[in-house]
Amino acid sequence: MGRSANIRIPKFRRRAEARPDEVLDAALALFVEKGFAASRVEDIATRAGLSKGAVYLYFPSKEAILEGLVRRAVLPIANNALGFIENYSGDPRLVIGTVMKMIAGRLSDPKMAAIPRLLMREIIHFPEFAQMYRREVLDRVVPAVQALIANGIAEGYLRPVDPELTVRSIVGPIMLHMLMAEIFGMTPAGGLSLDRLVDNHLTILFDGLSAPASDRRFMAT
């Protein structure tokens, strides 16, 4: 084996590369426990085992830490969804179902589920977070889903529905489900169970969206 096979990354470098995630993990725990406003940067630093100055090397403010949490959690989901949706041709129900189940799977991780819950609590006080989420996620994903639905209508898979409003019908139940649990404390007996919610939602959604077989120009697979 060559010399390159024996090269090891120095421990201090591995530690430095891991620090942003350590800061984000510590911040998430504190934000969930105490709320965003009550959590101080020095508390985050202590929880992460770093100095306050070290935290500021990676994140210039507490708001930047929250933005980092959102980007770390949400952008991979948005990017994966776009990977499924863009340039897809065929029955859109297959992609919608896949993406919805992927979202449910990711949100079954408590660390992931904590992000939308945190945003629901804080977004009214920090509207810039809403703008950031719109810019990074909604403005990219929503047009792609609208185009997917429009193509499904044109190809005869879906009824002639309004694509823009249909996007809201697709994502709305998940948002309302989490809102009812977080804001009103109304959690189903079996817990959030997002996988069951998505299965139930897709059954209702597709029964309503699917074009009658006699009207389809192409047979759905």
What would you note in describing this structure?
It comes from Devosia nanyangense. Keywords: DNA-binding, Transcription, Transcription regulation. By secondary structure, the protein is mainly alpha-helical. It folds into two domains: 1-60, Arc Repressor Mutant, subunit A; 63-215, Tetracycline Repressor, domain 2 (Orthogonal Bundle), CATH 1.10.357. The protein contains nine helices and no strands. The relative contact order is 0.10.
Please give the CATH architecture of the largest domain.
Orthogonal Bundle
From the N-terminal CA to the C-terminal CA, the straight-line distance is 50 Å
Find the count of extended strands (DSSP E, 2+ residues). 0
Q: Find the CATH topology of the largest domain.
A: Tetracycline Repressor, domain 2
| Shape summary | elongated
Classified in CATH, the superfamily of the largest domain is Tetracycline Repressor, domain 2
- Overall radius of gyration: 21 Å
Class by SSE composition = mainly alpha
**Residue-averaged pLDDT:** 85
Element order, helices and strands? Answer: HHHHHHHHH
For the biggest sheet, the summary is: none
How much helix is in the residues? over 70%
Taking pLDDT < 50 over at least 5 consecutive residues as the criterion, the unreliable ranges are 9-14
Work out the helix count. 9
